[in-house]
Design brief:
It is a single chain. This protein has 389 residues and is α+β, with helices and mostly antiparallel strands. It has 3 domains: 109 residues, Aminopeptidase (3-Layer(aba) Sandwich), CATH 3.40.630; 138 residues, 3-Layer(aba) Sandwich (Aminopeptidase); 96 residues, SCP2 sterol-binding domain (Nonspecific Lipid-transfer Protein, Chain A), CATH 3.30.1050. Helix content is 32%, strand content 32%. Helix 6 packs across helix 7. The structure holds coenzyme A. The site of coenzyme A has 17 residues, from strand 4, helix 3 and helix 4.
């Protein structure tokens, strides 16, 4: 790699270069999308959340950092969402992407994010830097007539709109905390109001649940449905299914552990579509302190972390979990203990069974007798996301 390639903060003067490299990587944007892209860009520049690589004066690679929060074990954790990772074609395959991503990691740590997440178009570059698969964006297809017949007619459901954004967030907050959900992004109230106000967002609200759905490619598609009781789940799904005379199938973004899978008689599509996303623990003590753990789990164990990219995570730590919260503190302990690299720690954090992590060669050492307790602490429903970024 040429020595004169430098990491920089992307500035307004680089925007045309970013667009040129982006077009060569992902295709051209239509006029409306380009305008939105440009206005988003200014926010990234102002917040120093877009990192670039220059060759002399010319920008030849860039990546953006979205300021997100994500549910982990029913608690909200700040997450740096990495997107728009692009290298000019003539510079690819020479380590520029890796240099760029190291800059992105450093900036994300500097801005205090305990976690970073991304949807990978290719995994190798991200795995080399410590990212690992952590969850999916799952889309199922149900026969609309099955949903229509779920009942729930005794539940009162009303049409909702932008003014209900606060209530939507309260319901999500309560239900995700109770169910110790992992994965979905948390949106600010203004963004939720914007979404509920879109022409293609059909929103219905009950006391303990809501649904937002719309048309996509001639079919009805559920973007989000949350229900705190069986009756409300039946009521909201049957509102969507009432469109069965026009839309034979209903597509839905949802968790593989959503109660709807246990309510609908006919199985959902046997082949759901899954877009996998990756995670990286950036600040191990902060990430452990921020997430929720299984309330009954109790754990006192030493871990040895070896993070070749972020040295602050490396070393011997004591992991303590009780009453649903955890802490990771430096340990002076000696002797054999569970050892993990960044990918192993991230997989464990995301609820991957420890046996799987061990058999993938991402964890080793320690006493097998501790594995059950460690696994129980991190376990929970499958991590999922509803949004792509
Ligand atoms: C993906 C991309 C950012 C990688 O940039 P790059 O400068 O070529 O990456 P590097 O040279 O630093 O390569 C790092 C590692 O990833 C691997 N890699 C890079 N691109 C790859 C690809 N398309 N498929 C498989 N592996 C790939 C390299 O072989 C290298 O691994 P190695 O050290 O084991 O050989 C670049 O190819 C690109 O801009 N692609 C188009 C847009 C895109 O897909 N962006 C990613 C969105 S998530």
């Amino acid at each position: 790699m040429a020595d004169d390639l430098r990491l920089v903060d992307v500035e307004s003067k680089h925007v045309d270069d970013v667009y040129r490299v982006r077009s060569r990587s992902f295709g051209l944007l239509g006029a409306g999308d380009r305008e939105e892209w440009l206005s988003n860009m200014q926010g990234f520049i102002d917040d120093r959340r877009i990192v670039g690589v220059v060759d002399g004066d010319e920008l030849i690679a860039s990546a953006r950092i979205w300021d997100f929060e994500q549910w982990w074990g029913g608690r909200k954790v700040r997450m740096a969402g990495i997107a728009g990772v692009v290298v000019a074609p003539e510079y690819r395959g020479r380590g520029v992407g890796s240099k760029l991503m190291r800059g992105v990691l450093a900036r994300s740590v500097e801005q205090g994010y305990p976690l970073s997440g991304l949807y990978p178009a290719t995994t190798v570059i991200y795995r080399h830097l410590g990212y690992e698969f952590a969850g999916g964006r799952f889309r199922y297809t149900f026969p609309a007539a099955e949903l229509r017949s779920l009942g729930g007619k005794e539940v009162s459901v009303r049409r909702a709109g932008p003014d209900d954004a606060k209530r939507f967030l309260e319901i999500v907050g309560q239900l995700h905390a109770e169910a110790r959900i992992s994965g979905p992004l948390v949106w600010p109230e203004a963004k939720v109001a914007e979404w509920l106000g879109e022409e293609n967002s059909f929103c219905y609200l009950a006391d303990d649940g809501f649904v937002v759905y719309g048309w996509e490619g001639g079919k009805l598609r559920v973007e989000e449905l949350v229900a705190g009781s069986e009756a409300t789940a039946r009521a909201l799904w049957s509102v969507v299914g009432s469109g069965s005379s026009i839309s034979t199938d209903v597509e839905a973004y949802m968790s593989p552990d959503d109660p709807a899978h246990l309510l609908v008689d006919k199985e959902a599509d046997k082949q759901p579509t899954i877009e996998h996303w990756m995670l990286r623990v950036l600040d191990a003590p902060a990430a452990i302190a921020a997430r929720g753990f299984a309330p009954g789990a109790s754990l006192e164990v030493d871990l040895e972390l070896d993070d070749s990219e972020l040295a602050g995570n490396s070393g011997r730590w004591h992991l303590s979990v009780s009453d649903g919260v955890g802490s990771l503190t430096p340990s002076n302990g000696t002797g054999e203990t569970l050892r993990l690299g960044s990918r192993g720690l991230t997989a464990l954090y995301a609820g991957t069974p420890l046996a799987t992590v061990r058999r993938a060669g991402l964890a080793w050492g320690g006493a097998a007798a501790d594995d059950g307790a460690i696994e129980t602490a991190f376990a929970g429903a499958t991590s999922y996301m509803l949004d792509y970024f």
